[in-house]
Amino acid sequence: MTLEDESGSVNVIVWPSLLERYRKEALGATLLGVHGVWQTDGKVKHLVARRLFDMTALLGELTTTSRDFC
User: Fold this and answer.
1) Is residue 68 part of a domain?
2) Model pTM?
3) Digit-coded pLDDT (tens) for 41-67
């Protein structure tokens, strides 16, 4: 996964076993929270996920759209 905010992007590493445990959150959340271990290699940033959270409820009535970066 790649997450992005105003400061840039970060690669989120989600191992297959973690994805199975948090499949609903990973595939269904409009706003995804990630707890994990932060790693950097030069300018490349990685977050190795340990837990995923569906935080969509925090958006309230805000409408959201996904952007296609292709």
Assistant:
1) no
2) 0.73
3) 888 889 999 999 999 999 888 776 767
